[in-house]
Amino acid sequence: MKITAVKTYAVQIPLKPERRMISSLGQHIVSPYVVVRLETDAGIDGVGEATVMPRWSGETVWGAKAILDHIFAPRVIGMDVADIEQIDLVMDRSSQGNWFAKSAIEMACWDVLGKDAGKPVYELLGGAARPLDLRCRFSMGAYPPERAERRARELVADGFTTIKVKVGTNLEEDIVRVRTVREAIGPDLDMVIDANGGYDAATAIRAAEAMRDFNIGLFEQPTPRRDFGALAEVNRAIDMTVMADDICFDLGDARECIRNEACDVISLYPGKNGGIRKSKEIVDYAEQHGVACSIGSNLEWDIASAAMCHLVVACPNMNVEKYPGDILGPEYHEFSIAKEPLKINGPIISITDRPGLGIDVDWSIVEANMIVA
Questions:
Q1: 152 and 296 housed in the same domain
Q2: Distance between CA atoms of 97 and 73, rounded to whole angstroms?
Q3: Is residue 240 located within the same domain as residue 327?
Q4: 356 occurs within a structural domain
Q5: Are 154 and 189 in contact (CB under 8 A)?
Q6: Distance (Å, whole) CA 23 – CA 77
Q7: Residue 91, domain member (yes or no)
Q8: How far apart are CA 150 and CA 290, in angstroms?
Q9: How far apart are CA 65 and CA 21, in angstroms?
Q10: How many domains does the chain have?
Q11: Are residues 179 and 236 in the same domain?
Q12: How many whole angstroms from its chain centre is CA 10?
């Protein structure tokens, strides 16, 4: 089955006001992403999503659409949709980075293969290792104390048992925010913090010490990306579980994390890693070295969120029971591009056993919300 066309759509959806994100990387109030429709000579189409965010991966909606249209599409058209490893290789040889753009084509290939086989993607990855209903944590922005307290109480009422609080901005303000959330949710619920690389090693260690009494279970990406030594320094110095996220894009990064004993857990997701296959490759490598993995987020829509869910369901080492992940992106947005959006009920997101990714795109909504790119 050959790829005959790769069509791209630059689309913009605003976030719900109460879900707008603030972190050490800035504020996120609207999502301009790229939706991909991959066509084949068998008449089976697949869909993908490039969940681009300039300040995070360096990719923009305009750049992603351009590289998909002018670099990746011409090279993958005519290729066998089942040869995903070779498709990945062709894209990697034609461009460095551009993880989210590459993942859009790759996940569309999985969608086609699942539809052709009449199986959900998780079956193609080896079968379900856990239920199709996944419990997530909630990622709370770096809000002022009053808003953080109000939001925390709302989340507890909604059934969340793990709250992630963004830090990495101003240390004193971070301490106040985390204390406020802990007091709001009580002593028993799980709480983690995420600096998005906003601290240097010394500040991260001070932050962990200052927050010792707040019962923080996990410290996500305390130090900047690329500095594996700094992350390792923090991991040695604090008694919290350390998660690597912003620093780990590919298998090489995962090897460095593990070689340097820089973390206890690695956060993965197909967009960041360049596709489902590459994510699974890292999951399997980490498992061989006794390092757990979990799922992160770039505030995806339904297509990429479904890809994340299929990865988690299929991989035992995506240890979301112990380290809940972030797959609630669709719920952050004002509307969905899916005819039947993923079911999200408080902290629980569910996929079905429909073939492929299980997402039918409403192309009328896509076309009504396209932007010039």
A1: yes
A2: 16
A3: yes
A4: no
A5: no
A6: 39
A7: yes
A8: 39
A9: 24
A10: 2
A11: yes
A12: 19
Structure-token pair, residue 80: 């066998």
In a domain, 95, yes or no: yes
Together in a domain, 94 and 155:
no
Is 365 exposed, middle or buried, given 0-12, 13-18 or 19+ CB atoms closer than 10 A? Answer: middle
The residues pairing with 153 across neighbouring beta strands, listed in sequence order, are none
Strand-pair partners of 190: 162
Q: Same domain, yes or no, for 206 and 106?
A: no
Are 143 and 263 in a shared domain?
A: yes
3-state SS, residue 349 = strand
Find the CATH number of the domain harbouring 211. 3.20.20.120
Looking at the fold, whether 147 and 256 belong to one and the same domain comes out as: yes
Other beta carbons less than 10 A from residue 186's beta carbon: 9
Q: How large is the angle between the packed helices 171-185 and 201-210, nearest 10 degrees?
A: 30
For position 83, which CATH number holds? 3.30.390.10
In a domain? residue 373:
no
Positive or negative, the Cα torsion across 258, 261, 262, 264?
positive
- Sorting pLDDT into bands at 50, 70 and 90, what band is 22? low
348 by Cβ neighbours in 10 Å (0-12 / 13-18 / 19+) ranks as middle
d(C-alpha 104, C-alpha 129), whole Å: 24
Q: How large a percentage of the chain has pLDDT more than 70?
A: 97
One-letter amino acid for residue 220 of the chain? E
Contact indicator for 120, 356 with CB cutoff of 8 Å: yes
For residue 231, the enclosing domain spans 123-350
> pLDDT value at position 24?
55
Give the mean pLDDT of the chain. 96
Asked if 9 and 41 touch (Cβ cutoff 8 Å), the reply is: no
Please give the structure tokens belonging to residue 190. 């799980």
Say yes or no: 238 and 196 in one domain: yes
Provide the greatest CA pair distance for the chain: 60
Structure tokens at 40: 């084949």
Strand order in the sheet with 265-268: 138-140, 162-166, 190-194, 218-220, 241-244, 265-268, 292-295
pLDDT band at 313 (very low <50, low <70, confident <90, very high): very high
247-300 pLDDT per residue, tens: 999 999 999 999 999 999 999 999 999 999 999 999 999 999 999 999 999 999
Quick one: pLDDT at residue 371?
Answer: 94
Q: How many Å separate Cα 185 from the centre of its chain?
A: 25
Residue of 206, 209, 270 whose CA lies nearest to 50: 270
